Amino acid sequence: MNPFAGFSYYEILEISRSATAEDIEAAFQRMCSIYGLEGLAAYSLFTPEERTEILAQIEEAFKVLSDEYRRREYDEVLREQRPPAPPDAGPQPSLPFDQDSTPTLAPVPAAPASPPPEEAPPPEPPKEITGESLRRYREALGLSLDRVWERTRIRKGLIQAIEEENRSLLPAPVFLKGMLLAYARALNLAAPEAAAQQYLDRLAAPAS
Amino acid sequence: MAASRKIWAFGSGKGGTGKSVICANIGVYLAQVGLKVVMVDLDLGGANLHTCLGLPAPTRNLAEFIHRRENDLSNLLHPTPLAHLQLIPGTQYGPDASAIRYQQQRRLIRALNRLEADLVILDIGAGSSTVTMDFFLAAETGVLILCPEPTAVENMYQMLRQLLFRRLRNLHDYHRYRAILDGLWEDSRSQSLRTPWDFFRVVEEASPEAAGRLREHLRAFRPGLIINEVRAEEDRELGRSLKSLCRRHFGVEAEFLGTVEYDDSVWQSVRKRQPLLLAYPHSRPARSIRQIADNLLYRSRHRPAVTSAKGAA
Protein backbone atom coordinates (compact mmCIF):
# COMPACT_ATOMS: atom_id res chain seq x y z
CA MET A 1 0.00 0.00 0.00
CA ASN A 2 1.29 3.41 -0.88
CA PRO A 3 2.11 4.95 2.50
CA PHE A 4 1.42 8.44 1.21
CA ALA A 5 -1.82 7.70 -0.59
CA GLY A 6 -4.15 10.64 -0.24
CA PHE A 7 -1.41 12.99 1.02
CA SER A 8 -0.93 16.29 -0.71
CA TYR A 9 2.59 17.35 -1.60
CA TYR A 10 2.51 19.66 1.38
CA GLU A 11 1.55 16.79 3.64
CA ILE A 12 4.26 14.61 2.19
CA LEU A 13 6.85 17.21 3.13
CA GLU A 14 5.04 18.09 6.38
CA ILE A 15 4.88 21.78 5.66
CA SER A 16 2.11 24.34 5.56
CA ARG A 17 0.62 25.72 2.37
CA SER A 18 2.41 28.99 3.02
CA ALA A 19 5.88 27.43 3.37
CA THR A 20 8.75 29.50 1.94
CA ALA A 21 11.34 28.20 -0.49
CA GLU A 22 13.76 27.66 2.41
CA ASP A 23 11.13 25.75 4.40
CA ILE A 24 10.56 23.49 1.44
CA GLU A 25 14.25 22.86 0.94
CA ALA A 26 14.77 22.09 4.64
CA ALA A 27 11.72 19.84 4.74
CA PHE A 28 12.93 17.97 1.69
CA GLN A 29 16.31 17.32 3.31
CA ARG A 30 14.62 16.19 6.48
CA MET A 31 12.28 13.78 4.72
CA CYS A 32 15.17 12.34 2.74
CA SER A 33 17.07 11.67 5.92
CA ILE A 34 14.03 10.12 7.62
CA TYR A 35 13.11 7.80 4.76
CA GLY A 36 16.55 7.39 3.22
CA LEU A 37 18.37 4.11 3.40
CA GLU A 38 20.47 5.20 6.37
CA GLY A 39 17.48 6.56 8.22
CA LEU A 40 17.22 4.73 11.52
CA ALA A 41 13.67 5.82 12.29
CA ALA A 42 12.01 4.31 9.24
CA TYR A 43 14.08 1.17 9.42
CA SER A 44 11.79 -1.86 9.80
CA LEU A 45 8.67 0.10 8.91
CA PHE A 46 9.14 -0.24 5.18
CA THR A 47 10.72 -2.62 2.73
CA PRO A 48 13.52 -1.28 0.53
CA GLU A 49 11.06 -1.15 -2.38
CA GLU A 50 8.61 0.87 -0.36
CA ARG A 51 11.36 3.23 0.67
CA THR A 52 12.33 3.75 -2.93
CA GLU A 53 8.72 4.48 -3.78
CA ILE A 54 8.40 6.88 -0.85
CA LEU A 55 11.59 8.71 -1.77
CA ALA A 56 10.36 9.08 -5.33
CA GLN A 57 7.19 10.70 -4.04
CA ILE A 58 9.13 13.00 -1.74
CA GLU A 59 11.25 14.05 -4.65
CA GLU A 60 8.24 14.63 -6.85
CA ALA A 61 6.64 16.75 -4.13
CA PHE A 62 9.84 18.74 -3.80
CA LYS A 63 10.21 19.21 -7.54
CA VAL A 64 6.74 20.62 -7.89
CA LEU A 65 6.71 22.79 -4.79
CA SER A 66 10.17 24.24 -5.37
CA ASP A 67 9.23 25.34 -8.85
CA GLU A 68 7.21 28.52 -8.44
CA TYR A 69 5.22 28.06 -11.59
CA ARG A 70 4.41 24.41 -11.02
CA ARG A 71 3.59 25.11 -7.41
CA ARG A 72 1.03 27.73 -8.39
CA GLU A 73 -0.51 25.29 -10.80
CA TYR A 74 -0.61 22.63 -8.15
CA ASP A 75 -2.17 24.99 -5.63
CA GLU A 76 -4.92 25.65 -8.17
CA VAL A 77 -5.60 21.96 -8.40
CA LEU A 78 -5.62 21.60 -4.63
CA ARG A 79 -8.04 24.42 -4.33
CA GLU A 80 -10.39 22.62 -6.64
CA GLN A 81 -10.28 19.80 -4.12
CA ARG A 82 -8.81 17.33 -6.49
CA PRO A 83 -6.39 14.73 -5.24
CA PRO A 84 -2.77 15.34 -6.29
CA ALA A 85 -3.14 13.26 -9.45
CA PRO A 86 -1.16 10.08 -8.95
CA PRO A 87 0.46 8.81 -12.14
CA ASP A 88 -2.16 6.11 -12.72
CA ALA A 89 -5.06 8.20 -11.52
CA GLY A 90 -8.18 6.09 -11.52
CA PRO A 91 -11.44 7.48 -12.73
CA GLN A 92 -13.00 7.96 -9.28
CA PRO A 93 -11.84 9.48 -6.03
CA SER A 94 -10.92 7.00 -3.29
CA LEU A 95 -14.43 6.73 -1.87
CA PRO A 96 -16.66 6.01 -4.80
CA PHE A 97 -19.84 5.61 -2.82
CA ASP A 98 -21.48 6.72 0.39
CA GLN A 99 -22.90 4.59 3.08
CA ASP A 100 -26.50 5.03 2.14
CA SER A 101 -26.67 6.20 -1.44
CA THR A 102 -25.46 2.99 -2.96
CA PRO A 103 -25.53 3.09 -6.72
CA THR A 104 -27.62 0.28 -8.05
CA LEU A 105 -25.48 -1.03 -10.83
CA ALA A 106 -27.95 -3.14 -12.73
CA PRO A 107 -28.49 -5.87 -10.16
CA VAL A 108 -28.20 -9.36 -11.51
CA PRO A 109 -31.62 -10.95 -11.21
CA ALA A 110 -31.67 -13.80 -8.73
CA ALA A 111 -31.93 -17.26 -10.18
CA PRO A 112 -35.57 -18.27 -10.31
CA ALA A 113 -36.99 -21.08 -8.21
CA SER A 114 -34.64 -20.41 -5.32
CA PRO A 115 -37.08 -19.00 -2.72
CA PRO A 116 -37.51 -21.86 -0.29
CA PRO A 117 -40.99 -22.99 0.74
CA GLU A 118 -41.92 -23.03 4.44
CA GLU A 119 -40.53 -26.42 5.35
CA ALA A 120 -37.43 -26.05 3.26
CA PRO A 121 -34.16 -27.34 4.69
CA PRO A 122 -31.60 -24.67 5.55
CA PRO A 123 -29.93 -23.37 2.43
CA GLU A 124 -26.88 -25.21 1.22
CA PRO A 125 -23.70 -23.17 1.58
CA PRO A 126 -22.12 -22.53 -1.79
CA LYS A 127 -19.56 -25.09 -2.92
CA GLU A 128 -17.85 -22.76 -5.28
CA ILE A 129 -17.29 -19.29 -3.91
CA THR A 130 -18.13 -16.58 -6.38
CA GLY A 131 -19.68 -13.20 -5.91
CA GLU A 132 -22.85 -14.57 -7.38
CA SER A 133 -22.95 -17.65 -5.15
CA LEU A 134 -22.29 -15.54 -2.08
CA ARG A 135 -25.15 -13.26 -2.98
CA ARG A 136 -27.48 -16.16 -3.60
CA TYR A 137 -26.58 -17.76 -0.34
CA ARG A 138 -27.04 -14.50 1.52
CA GLU A 139 -30.44 -14.04 -0.01
CA ALA A 140 -31.36 -17.64 0.73
CA LEU A 141 -30.50 -16.94 4.35
CA GLY A 142 -32.81 -13.98 4.19
CA LEU A 143 -30.04 -11.55 5.00
CA SER A 144 -30.41 -8.09 3.56
CA LEU A 145 -27.39 -5.94 2.76
CA ASP A 146 -28.40 -3.89 5.76
CA ARG A 147 -28.17 -6.91 8.01
CA VAL A 148 -24.73 -7.75 6.70
CA TRP A 149 -23.73 -4.16 7.28
CA GLU A 150 -24.97 -4.40 10.84
CA ARG A 151 -22.98 -7.54 11.42
CA THR A 152 -19.76 -6.50 9.74
CA ARG A 153 -19.90 -2.70 9.44
CA ILE A 154 -18.73 -3.08 5.89
CA ARG A 155 -20.36 -0.51 3.68
CA LYS A 156 -23.25 -1.85 1.66
CA GLY A 157 -21.70 -0.63 -1.54
CA LEU A 158 -18.61 -2.70 -0.90
CA ILE A 159 -20.60 -5.81 -0.12
CA GLN A 160 -22.42 -5.29 -3.36
CA ALA A 161 -19.15 -4.81 -5.16
CA ILE A 162 -17.92 -8.10 -3.67
CA GLU A 163 -21.02 -9.85 -4.88
CA GLU A 164 -20.76 -8.30 -8.29
CA GLU A 165 -17.02 -8.97 -8.41
CA ASN A 166 -16.69 -5.41 -9.48
CA ARG A 167 -12.93 -5.12 -9.68
CA SER A 168 -12.92 -1.39 -10.18
CA LEU A 169 -14.66 -0.80 -6.87
CA LEU A 170 -12.87 -3.43 -4.81
CA PRO A 171 -9.78 -2.62 -2.79
CA ALA A 172 -6.51 -4.42 -3.44
CA PRO A 173 -6.66 -8.15 -2.63
CA VAL A 174 -4.51 -7.88 0.49
CA PHE A 175 -7.03 -5.51 2.00
CA LEU A 176 -10.02 -7.22 0.58
CA LYS A 177 -9.17 -10.39 2.42
CA GLY A 178 -10.11 -9.07 5.84
CA MET A 179 -13.46 -7.89 4.51
CA LEU A 180 -14.12 -11.22 2.87
CA LEU A 181 -13.37 -12.95 6.15
CA ALA A 182 -15.82 -10.73 7.97
CA TYR A 183 -18.42 -11.29 5.28
CA ALA A 184 -17.90 -15.06 5.28
CA ARG A 185 -18.32 -15.10 9.04
CA ALA A 186 -21.47 -13.05 8.79
CA LEU A 187 -22.80 -15.77 6.49
CA ASN A 188 -21.63 -18.41 8.98
CA LEU A 189 -19.63 -20.23 6.34
CA ALA A 190 -17.82 -23.22 7.79
CA ALA A 191 -14.38 -22.25 6.51
CA PRO A 192 -14.24 -18.48 6.16
CA GLU A 193 -10.51 -18.42 5.40
CA ALA A 194 -10.83 -20.92 2.60
CA ALA A 195 -13.83 -19.08 1.21
CA ALA A 196 -11.98 -15.77 1.25
CA GLN A 197 -9.01 -17.36 -0.44
CA GLN A 198 -11.14 -18.98 -3.10
CA TYR A 199 -12.75 -15.69 -3.88
CA LEU A 200 -9.38 -13.95 -4.09
CA ASP A 201 -7.96 -16.65 -6.34
CA ARG A 202 -10.92 -16.29 -8.61
CA LEU A 203 -10.50 -12.55 -8.72
CA ALA A 204 -6.81 -12.92 -9.48
CA ALA A 205 -7.47 -15.17 -12.45
CA PRO A 206 -7.90 -13.31 -15.73
CA ALA A 207 -11.52 -12.31 -16.25
CA SER A 208 -13.28 -14.89 -18.35
CA MET B 1 -10.17 0.78 32.57
CA ALA B 2 -9.97 4.51 33.08
CA ALA B 3 -6.57 6.10 32.81
CA SER B 4 -5.35 7.22 36.17
CA ARG B 5 -4.22 10.77 36.60
CA LYS B 6 -1.29 10.18 38.88
CA ILE B 7 0.34 7.11 37.40
CA TRP B 8 3.21 7.35 34.98
CA ALA B 9 4.43 4.19 33.30
CA PHE B 10 7.81 3.61 31.68
CA GLY B 11 8.14 0.81 29.21
CA SER B 12 10.48 -0.32 26.50
CA GLY B 13 10.09 -2.55 23.51
CA LYS B 14 13.42 -4.18 24.21
CA GLY B 15 15.57 -4.86 27.26
CA GLY B 16 18.83 -3.05 27.88
CA THR B 17 17.69 0.43 26.94
CA GLY B 18 18.47 1.83 30.39
CA LYS B 19 14.83 2.13 31.29
CA SER B 20 15.21 1.39 35.00
CA VAL B 21 18.05 3.85 35.43
CA ILE B 22 16.12 6.66 33.76
CA CYS B 23 12.97 5.73 35.61
CA ALA B 24 14.73 5.70 39.01
CA ASN B 25 16.36 9.04 38.39
CA ILE B 26 13.17 10.70 37.24
CA GLY B 27 11.66 9.49 40.52
CA VAL B 28 14.61 10.90 42.45
CA TYR B 29 14.28 14.28 40.78
CA LEU B 30 10.55 14.52 41.37
CA ALA B 31 11.07 13.68 45.03
CA GLN B 32 13.80 16.31 45.16
CA VAL B 33 11.42 18.96 43.91
CA GLY B 34 9.02 18.05 46.68
CA LEU B 35 6.54 15.57 45.23
CA LYS B 36 5.61 12.51 47.20
CA VAL B 37 6.61 9.72 44.85
CA VAL B 38 6.11 5.97 44.96
CA MET B 39 8.08 3.88 42.50
CA VAL B 40 6.84 0.42 41.64
CA ASP B 41 9.05 -2.17 40.07
CA LEU B 42 6.79 -4.08 37.71
CA ASP B 43 9.68 -5.64 35.87
CA LEU B 44 8.58 -8.86 37.46
CA GLY B 45 11.08 -11.64 37.32
CA GLY B 46 13.85 -9.20 36.45
CA ALA B 47 13.45 -6.55 39.09
CA ASN B 48 16.39 -4.25 39.71
CA LEU B 49 14.93 -0.85 40.43
CA HIS B 50 16.03 -1.18 44.04
CA THR B 51 19.66 -1.36 42.91
CA CYS B 52 19.25 1.74 40.76
CA LEU B 53 18.02 3.50 43.89
CA GLY B 54 20.86 2.15 46.02
CA LEU B 55 18.91 -0.43 48.04
CA PRO B 56 19.72 -4.09 48.67
CA ALA B 57 17.26 -6.64 47.31
CA PRO B 58 14.29 -6.44 49.68
CA THR B 59 12.62 -9.63 50.80
CA ARG B 60 9.13 -8.26 51.05
CA ASN B 61 8.06 -7.33 47.55
CA LEU B 62 5.20 -7.20 45.13
CA ALA B 63 4.90 -10.98 45.12
CA GLU B 64 3.38 -10.71 48.61
CA PHE B 65 0.54 -8.67 47.23
CA ILE B 66 0.11 -10.71 44.10
CA HIS B 67 -0.15 -13.92 46.09
CA ARG B 68 -2.47 -12.28 48.60
CA ARG B 69 -0.15 -12.77 51.51
CA GLU B 70 -0.47 -9.03 51.88
CA ASN B 71 -3.61 -7.12 51.08
CA ASP B 72 -2.45 -3.61 51.76
CA LEU B 73 0.00 -2.43 49.13
CA SER B 74 1.18 0.40 51.36
CA ASN B 75 2.67 -2.17 53.76
CA LEU B 76 5.16 -3.00 51.03
CA LEU B 77 6.54 0.52 50.74
CA HIS B 78 10.27 0.70 51.36
CA PRO B 79 12.11 3.88 52.28
CA THR B 80 14.86 5.15 49.97
CA PRO B 81 17.69 7.65 50.50
CA LEU B 82 15.18 10.38 49.73
CA ALA B 83 12.50 11.32 52.23
CA HIS B 84 9.74 11.77 49.65
CA LEU B 85 10.55 8.71 47.62
CA GLN B 86 9.36 5.21 48.42
CA LEU B 87 9.75 1.97 46.54
CA ILE B 88 7.60 -1.09 46.10
CA PRO B 89 10.16 -3.62 44.89
CA GLY B 90 9.47 -6.24 42.29
CA THR B 91 10.20 -9.90 42.35
CA GLN B 92 13.42 -11.40 41.12
CA TYR B 93 12.24 -14.94 41.40
CA GLY B 94 8.71 -16.16 41.19
CA PRO B 95 6.08 -15.02 38.77
CA ASP B 96 7.07 -12.96 35.82
CA ALA B 97 4.65 -10.50 34.32
CA SER B 98 3.13 -12.97 31.91
CA ALA B 99 2.06 -15.20 34.80
CA ILE B 100 -0.18 -12.55 36.34
CA ARG B 101 -3.81 -13.19 35.77
CA TYR B 102 -6.20 -10.53 34.66
CA GLN B 103 -7.97 -10.35 38.01
CA GLN B 104 -4.71 -9.99 39.88
CA GLN B 105 -3.72 -7.21 37.58
CA ARG B 106 -6.99 -5.36 38.07
CA ARG B 107 -6.60 -5.67 41.79
CA LEU B 108 -3.06 -4.33 41.59
CA ILE B 109 -4.07 -1.39 39.42
CA ARG B 110 -6.87 -0.51 41.84
CA ALA B 111 -4.43 -0.65 44.74
CA LEU B 112 -1.93 1.50 42.85
CA ASN B 113 -4.61 4.10 42.33
CA ARG B 114 -5.28 4.18 46.03
CA LEU B 115 -1.68 4.70 47.13
CA GLU B 116 -1.15 7.91 48.93
CA ALA B 117 1.23 9.78 46.71
CA ASP B 118 1.39 12.69 44.33
CA LEU B 119 2.76 10.40 41.73
CA VAL B 120 3.16 6.68 41.19
CA ILE B 121 5.87 5.67 38.76
CA LEU B 122 5.74 2.22 37.20
CA ASP B 123 8.84 0.58 35.81
CA ILE B 124 7.31 -1.94 33.46
CA GLY B 125 9.19 -4.91 32.09
CA ALA B 126 10.49 -4.72 28.54
CA GLY B 127 8.55 -6.25 25.69
CA SER B 128 4.91 -6.26 24.81
CA SER B 129 3.12 -8.95 26.74
CA THR B 130 -0.55 -8.26 27.42
CA VAL B 131 0.16 -7.58 31.08
CA THR B 132 2.88 -5.09 30.22
CA MET B 133 0.59 -3.31 27.83
CA ASP B 134 -2.28 -3.15 30.26
CA PHE B 135 -0.09 -1.53 32.90
CA PHE B 136 1.11 0.90 30.30
CA LEU B 137 -2.41 1.75 29.20
CA ALA B 138 -3.67 2.08 32.77
CA ALA B 139 -1.34 5.01 33.33
CA GLU B 140 -2.13 8.64 32.71
CA THR B 141 1.19 8.98 30.97
CA GLY B 142 2.98 6.17 29.20
CA VAL B 143 6.57 6.66 28.15
CA LEU B 144 8.61 4.46 25.84
CA ILE B 145 12.36 4.42 26.20
CA LEU B 146 14.63 3.36 23.37
CA CYS B 147 18.22 3.62 22.19
CA PRO B 148 19.33 4.83 18.78
CA GLU B 149 19.78 1.29 17.48
CA PRO B 150 17.86 -0.49 14.73
CA THR B 151 16.80 -3.30 17.07
CA ALA B 152 15.44 -0.94 19.70
CA VAL B 153 13.59 1.14 17.10
CA GLU B 154 12.10 -1.98 15.58
CA ASN B 155 10.90 -3.27 18.95
CA MET B 156 9.55 0.15 19.81
CA TYR B 157 7.32 0.05 16.74
CA GLN B 158 6.21 -3.45 17.60
CA MET B 159 5.28 -2.35 21.06
CA LEU B 160 3.50 0.74 19.82
CA ARG B 161 1.57 -1.32 17.35
CA GLN B 162 0.49 -3.79 20.01
CA LEU B 163 -0.40 -0.96 22.38
CA LEU B 164 -2.52 0.64 19.75
CA PHE B 165 -4.58 -2.41 19.05
CA ARG B 166 -4.80 -3.28 22.69
CA ARG B 167 -6.17 0.16 23.30
CA LEU B 168 -8.65 -0.18 20.49
CA ARG B 169 -9.87 -3.42 21.93
CA ASN B 170 -10.57 -1.66 25.18
CA LEU B 171 -13.04 0.49 23.31
CA HIS B 172 -16.29 -0.06 25.13
CA ASP B 173 -18.30 -0.58 21.98
CA TYR B 174 -15.63 -2.61 20.21
CA HIS B 175 -18.11 -5.44 19.74
CA ARG B 176 -20.05 -3.32 17.26
CA TYR B 177 -17.10 -3.31 14.94
CA ARG B 178 -15.70 -6.66 15.87
CA ALA B 179 -16.54 -8.45 12.67
CA ILE B 180 -14.71 -6.05 10.42
CA LEU B 181 -11.86 -5.13 12.75
CA ASP B 182 -10.93 -8.65 13.77
CA GLY B 183 -10.80 -9.75 10.17
CA LEU B 184 -8.68 -6.83 9.09
CA TRP B 185 -6.46 -7.07 12.10
CA GLU B 186 -5.76 -10.71 11.41
CA ASP B 187 -4.86 -9.70 7.94
CA SER B 188 -2.58 -6.92 9.08
CA ARG B 189 -0.50 -9.41 11.02
CA SER B 190 0.42 -11.11 7.83
CA GLN B 191 2.36 -7.97 6.97
CA SER B 192 0.15 -6.95 4.12
CA LEU B 193 -0.85 -3.95 6.18
CA ARG B 194 2.50 -2.78 7.36
CA THR B 195 1.56 0.09 9.56
CA PRO B 196 -1.49 0.84 11.68
CA TRP B 197 -2.18 3.78 9.42
CA ASP B 198 -2.63 1.39 6.49
CA PHE B 199 -5.00 -0.51 8.73
CA PHE B 200 -7.05 2.60 9.42
CA ARG B 201 -7.24 3.39 5.76
CA VAL B 202 -8.66 -0.01 5.02
CA VAL B 203 -11.11 0.33 7.89
CA GLU B 204 -12.04 3.73 6.49
CA GLU B 205 -12.79 2.17 3.15
CA ALA B 206 -14.82 -0.64 4.65
CA SER B 207 -16.59 1.36 7.29
CA PRO B 208 -16.14 5.10 7.70
CA GLU B 209 -18.17 4.87 10.88
CA ALA B 210 -15.79 2.40 12.51
CA ALA B 211 -12.78 4.40 11.33
CA GLY B 212 -14.17 7.60 12.82
CA ARG B 213 -14.77 5.90 16.12
CA LEU B 214 -11.23 4.50 16.20
CA ARG B 215 -9.64 7.83 15.38
CA GLU B 216 -11.58 9.55 18.08
CA HIS B 217 -10.56 6.90 20.58
CA LEU B 218 -6.92 7.17 19.60
CA ARG B 219 -6.71 10.90 19.90
CA ALA B 220 -6.19 10.70 23.65
CA PHE B 221 -3.39 8.18 23.29
CA ARG B 222 -0.20 10.21 23.38
CA PRO B 223 2.77 8.13 24.46
CA GLY B 224 6.00 9.92 25.31
CA LEU B 225 9.36 8.97 23.81
CA ILE B 226 12.78 9.16 25.43
CA ILE B 227 15.95 8.33 23.55
CA ASN B 228 18.72 7.05 25.76
CA GLU B 229 22.43 6.53 25.17
CA VAL B 230 22.70 9.24 22.59
CA ARG B 231 26.23 9.57 21.23
CA ALA B 232 26.02 11.53 18.02
CA GLU B 233 24.25 14.70 17.10
CA GLU B 234 22.05 12.94 14.56
CA ASP B 235 20.75 10.67 17.31
CA ARG B 236 18.91 13.67 18.66
CA GLU B 237 17.12 14.04 15.34
CA LEU B 238 15.79 10.53 15.78
CA GLY B 239 13.20 11.76 18.24
CA ARG B 240 11.73 14.20 15.77
CA SER B 241 11.77 11.62 13.03
CA LEU B 242 10.01 9.05 15.16
CA LYS B 243 7.38 11.58 16.12
CA SER B 244 6.76 12.35 12.50
CA LEU B 245 6.58 8.67 11.51
CA CYS B 246 4.26 7.86 14.41
CA ARG B 247 1.86 10.53 13.26
CA ARG B 248 1.92 9.60 9.60
CA HIS B 249 2.03 5.85 9.77
CA PHE B 250 0.51 5.05 13.13
CA GLY B 251 -1.96 7.90 13.47
CA VAL B 252 -0.52 8.49 16.94
CA GLU B 253 0.66 11.80 18.30
CA ALA B 254 3.72 10.72 20.23
CA GLU B 255 5.54 13.29 22.30
CA PHE B 256 9.26 13.44 22.13
CA LEU B 257 10.35 14.19 25.68
CA GLY B 258 14.09 14.37 25.20
CA THR B 259 17.38 12.52 24.91
CA VAL B 260 19.81 11.25 27.52
CA GLU B 261 23.49 11.17 26.63
CA TYR B 262 25.68 8.10 26.69
CA ASP B 263 28.14 8.91 29.43
CA ASP B 264 30.48 7.11 31.82
CA SER B 265 28.80 8.77 34.76
CA VAL B 266 25.77 6.54 34.20
CA TRP B 267 27.49 3.21 34.60
CA GLN B 268 29.72 4.60 37.31
CA SER B 269 26.66 5.54 39.33
CA VAL B 270 25.16 2.09 38.77
CA ARG B 271 28.45 0.54 39.82
CA LYS B 272 28.38 2.67 42.98
CA ARG B 273 24.75 1.65 43.44
CA GLN B 274 23.66 5.23 43.73
CA PRO B 275 21.15 7.13 41.65
CA LEU B 276 22.92 9.20 39.01
CA LEU B 277 21.24 12.35 40.23
CA LEU B 278 22.78 11.90 43.67
CA ALA B 279 26.18 10.55 42.57
CA TYR B 280 26.79 12.89 39.63
CA PRO B 281 24.18 15.61 39.77
CA HIS B 282 26.09 17.87 37.40
CA SER B 283 26.74 15.32 34.67
CA ARG B 284 25.15 15.87 31.26
CA PRO B 285 22.79 12.90 31.49
CA ALA B 286 21.66 14.06 34.93
CA ARG B 287 20.77 17.43 33.48
CA SER B 288 18.93 15.82 30.61
CA ILE B 289 16.92 13.60 32.93
CA ARG B 290 15.84 16.59 34.99
CA GLN B 291 14.76 18.33 31.83
CA ILE B 292 12.76 15.32 30.72
CA ALA B 293 11.07 15.10 34.11
CA ASP B 294 10.18 18.78 33.82
CA ASN B 295 8.70 18.10 30.40
CA LEU B 296 6.61 15.34 31.89
CA LEU B 297 5.39 17.55 34.71
CA TYR B 298 4.51 20.29 32.28
CA ARG B 299 2.66 17.88 30.06
CA SER B 300 0.82 16.36 32.98
CA ARG B 301 -0.39 19.75 34.10
CA HIS B 302 -1.45 20.82 30.67
CA ARG B 303 -3.30 17.83 29.47
CA PRO B 304 -7.04 17.71 29.52
CA ALA B 305 -8.38 15.60 32.36
CA VAL B 306 -9.43 12.18 31.17
CA THR B 307 -10.36 10.47 34.41
CA SER B 308 -13.68 9.99 36.06
CA ALA B 309 -14.46 12.24 39.00
CA LYS B 310 -13.64 9.48 41.45
CA GLY B 311 -10.39 10.82 42.86
CA ALA B 312 -9.05 10.44 46.37
CA ALA B 313 -7.23 13.72 46.78
How is the secondary structure organized here?
The complex is a heterodimer of chains A (208) and B (313).
Chain A (H helix, E strand, L loop, with lengths): L8 H5 L7 H15 L12 H18 L2 H12 L51 H10 L4 H8 L3 H9 L8 H14 L5 H13 L4
Helix pairs in contact in A: 2-3, 5-7, 8-9
Chain B lengths: L6 E5 L7 H14 L4 E6 L6 H4 L9 H5 L11 E2 L5 E4 L13 H13 L4 E6 L5 H9 L2 E6 L3 H20 L4 H16 L6 H11 L1 H11 L5 E7 L2 H18 L4 E7 L2 H8 L4 H4 L4 H18 L12
Helix pairs in contact in B: 1-13, 5-6, 7-8, 8-9
Features:
heterodimer; A: 208 residues; mainly alpha; Helix Hairpins; 434 Repressor (Amino-terminal Domain); 2 domains; 50% helix; elongated; B: 313 residues; alpha/beta; Rossmann fold; eight-stranded mixed sheet; 13 helices; 48% helix; globular; disordered C terminus
Describe the structure.
Chain A is mainly α. Chain A has 2 domains: 9-79, DnaJ domain (Helix Hairpins); 95-208, 434 Repressor (Amino-terminal Domain) (Orthogonal Bundle), CATH 1.10.260.40. Chain A has helices spanning 9-13, 21-35, 48-65, 68-79, 131-140, 145-152, 156-164, 173-186, 192-204. The longest helix of chain A has 18 residues, at 48-65. Chain B has an 8-stranded mixed sheet, sandwiched between helices. The longest helix of chain B is centred in the middle third of the chain and has 20 residues, at 150-169. Chain B has a single domain, classed as Rossmann fold, CATH 3.40.50. With 313 residues, chain B is an alpha/beta fold. The radius of gyration of chain B is 19 Å and the shape is globular. In chain B, 48% of the residues lie in helices and 14% in strands. In chain B, helix 1 (19-32) packs across helix 13 (284-301), helix 5 (130-138) packs across helix 6 and helix 8 packs antiparallel against helix 9 (208-218). The chains are: A mainly alpha (208), B alpha/beta (313). Chains A and B meet through helix 8 of A and helix 6, helix 7, helix 8, helix 9 and helix 10 of B.
